[in-house]
Amino acid sequence: MTAEAVSIDMPEKPPSLPDWVFPPPEGFVAEDLDHIPDLPAHTELLDGSLVFVSPQASFHMRAVSLVEMNLRRLAPKHLRVRREMNVILGPTQRPEPDVSVIRAEAEQDPNQTFYKAGDVLLVVEVVSPESKDRDRDRKPTLYARAGIPYFWRVENAEGQMMVHVYALDQSTRSYTLAGIFHERLKVPVPFDIDIDLTEIDQL
């Protein structure tokens, strides 16, 4: 009797994983984001952990564009409006707000990748289904503790924008609700702002 050769399919070797998949025991620090190779775009750092973004929905993209466009139109010359730039709030906190209003002098280098919390007057987060807990709870808590004066949270109300506007209570380092706006957002701080929120349908 002759033995027949038996072919055994060996499993393929899994692809090697990048080093940043395995965080250091103490977690990442804010400066690490500038030195990690091949890090996905728009990665945030919250509480020492890397946070990755999901594909952007149409509402989110249009809401961010509407806010950015109008803030740029209305901002005084000593301020700048920035989209999707990291803000360092502390050693292990480096979120990326959808829109920020910063002091002009914070723009120091065309290659810079972040701003410091002390240079930021307003941060805006457009809530996505996958980020709702971070956008409604964790991020505003961190922004307030870092002393950022104003925070806006934009919600999707059946395809229309609903904007919750918050102001910082310096004594408690927490935000208080200043108003909820639906069709028109009109506030006097951090500068005179008047935005027709229904224009999202035209974008």
From TrEMBL:
Keywords: Endonuclease, Hydrolase, Nuclease. GO terms for molecular function: endonuclease activity. CDD domains: DUF820-like. Pfam families: Uma2. It comes from the Bacteria. Residues 32-187 form the Putative restriction endonuclease domain. This is Uma2 family endonuclease. The lineage of its organism: Bacteria, Bacillati, Actinomycetota, Actinomycetes, Streptosporangiales.
